[in-house]
Amino acid sequence: MGHEHSGDRTIVIECLPGSELPDRLRDAGYTQRTANPPEGERFIASAIAERLVLSSSGAYELASEGSTKAIITPSHSGIVKVRRFTFSIA
């Protein structure tokens, strides 16, 4: 974003698709613009959650829809898409 200068009163936010934050900031009176570039990717520590069950062999496998076995849901890091916006804070 090489066009920004020291003292600019513009912030850039990144949020997951579907986040309400850009709408809430716009509703609060902040002028919103799509950042350049408008999308990106970020590595988030707990982005991926999987539904697993313990199989008869003692190994974990993905739970099937409607499974009656005890389900564990570990989460781990992953790459997610983000949307980028700028707001003036003049």
Plain-language structure description:
With 90 residues, the protein is mainly β. The chain has one domain (10-88). 8% of the residues lie in helices and 49% in strands. It contains 1 helix and 5 strands. The strands form 2 sheets. A 3-stranded antiparallel β-sheet has the order 1-5-2. The longest helix is centred in the N-terminal third of the chain and has 7 residues, at 21-27. The protein is elongated, with a radius of gyration of 20 Å. The two termini are 19 Å apart. The mean pLDDT is 80.
Task: Map the helices and strands.
Elements: E1 10-15, H1 21-27, E2 32-49, E3 52-54, E4 60-62, E5 75-88
Antiparallel strand pairs: 1-5, 2-5, 3-4
Question: What's the quick description here?
Answer:
With 90 residues, this protein is mainly beta.
Question: How do the helices and strands follow one another from N- to C-terminus?
Answer: EHEEEE
Give the proportion of residues in helices: under 10%
**Uncertain parts:** none
- Describe the global form: elongated
Task: Report mean pLDDT, rounded to a whole number.
Answer: 80
Q: What's the structural domain tally? A: 1
Major β-sheet strand ordering: 1-5-2
Structural class: mainly beta
Strand content: over 45%
Instruction: Specify the number of helices.
Output: 1
Q: C-alpha Rg, in Å?
A: 20 Å
Sheet having the most strands? 3 strands, antiparallel
DSSP strand tally: 5
Give the distance, in angstroms, between the N- and C-terminal Cα atoms. Answer: 19 Å
**Oligomerization status of the protein chains:** single chain
